[in-house]
Specification:
This protein is an all-beta fold. The chain has 1 helix and 11 strands, in the order βαββββββββββ.
């Protein structure tokens, strides 16, 4: 079964990506997602064009090199094992993502018309994790923008909070981006 909210396995694969969802393919205005599998010793060149990206290890670890700077992402053994560190890539940058042991990496993106942010590393220790709900309805949420909101990227204003860029949103002071609060 396929509809606009469900992409069956292998229906959105393209080139090196296991999943490639662009704003155009999803009917969204800003958000996108790529899932990249790297075999041990492989590398992938990523050009961000008009979007900013996160490199988020789902399994495994990697090195992200951009503008002469390298970030060693420790990663994790699986998505339920722990929170992970990540790298932020600004628009109009080129990056090389390489993995000695291999892994699976999410590359969420958001279009932006302007950004003064540089590439940066986000350590996993600085990502706040909150318990919400109780009993069978409890869940762990990685706290995101705003004091009482979780990270949510939604291009449908009737069903969620919309952001156009990282710079245009409220920033939770607990996040590891000192420069984001400076406008």
């Amino acid at each position: 079964m396929s509809n606009k909210y469900h992409l069956p396995r292998d229906t959105s694969a393209d080139g090196p990506y296991d999943v490639l969802v662009t704003p155009e393919s999803a009917g969204w205005g800003y958000a996108g997602l790529r899932i990249l599998t790297l075999q041990p010793g492989e590398a992938h060149a990523l050009s961000t064009h008009d979007s900013e990206f996160l490199v988020l290890p789902l399994t495994g670890s990697c090195t992200v090199t951009t503008d002469g700077t390298s970030f060693e992402l420790e990663g994790r053994t699986g998505v339920f094992a722990s929170v992970t560190d990540f790298a932020h890539l600004p628009p109009e940058s080129a990056a090389l993502i390489s993995s000695a042991q291999g892994g699976l990496f999410a590359l969420p993106s958001a279009r932006t018309e302007r950004s003064s942010l540089s590439a940066r590393y986000g350590p996993k220790e600085a990502v706040p994790v909150e318990l919400r709900g109780a009993g069978a309805c409890s869940r762990h949420v990685m706290a995101g923008p705003g004091q009482d909101r979780a990270w949510l990227i939604c291009d449908d204003p009737a069903h969620g909070w919309v952001r156009t860029t990282w710079e245009s949103q409220d920033i939770d002071d607990r996040l590891p981006f000192e420069g984001l609060t400076q406008r």
